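We now fix the convention by which a protein and its fold are recorded. These numbers are not coordinates but entries in a learned vocabulary of local backbone shapes. A record is reproduced here so that you can trace the correspondence yourselves:
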Amino acid sequence: MRVLNYGRSAVLVELDSADEAAALHSRLEAQPSQGKVDSVVEGLVEAVPGLHTVLIRFDPTVTDPARLAQRLAQLWPGPASGVDAAHGQLDEVRVRVDYAGPDLDDVAQHTGMSTADVIARHQLRRYRIVLIGMAPGFYFLAGGDPNLRVPRRSSPRLDVLKGAVGLAGEFTGIYPRTGPGGWQLIGRVVDDLWHPTRLPAALLSPGSSIRFTAA
């Protein structure tokens, strides 16, 4: 964990993986009373997750970067215990997928597996939403099987269907609406996880723990 000054009232915490960043963010979000003297981290105003980072805004009248870094080092005992503890505290959401994506055969060929093995391995792991970005409602999920890591497509598509489930590097992604994209598509979520007229528009939030199941 590396803590960098980020202006006068924030620090940027760099972690070694998306799982570690999500675990630290979940631990900070679990505080009973943010910004109060009895909080786990005194003076915490906001914790904003990134793929491998957490941006922490704090009240400079309560703490400073040096004291905050010291407290974070105490709060974060290490990657293995931190990630495991955070995973255990989360309720799991089941997300149904129709595994008929146009790149499923290519993923199987790239990984040396059968399509059935790709689907089975994709369902075995528990994932965590580490970021919503790139497009409004696009879910980045970490925690997948390392054997399913594949590169992006060499030629992106102009129209990826809403709800498409794609693989790229260490992440699984869920497309919120029809639009361009270059991830390897293995299926499509059958439930509506993001809708612009709903409050909140995103059904799930960073830190949510999910498991995929066949529709």
The mean pLDDT is 85. The longest strand covers residues 92-98.
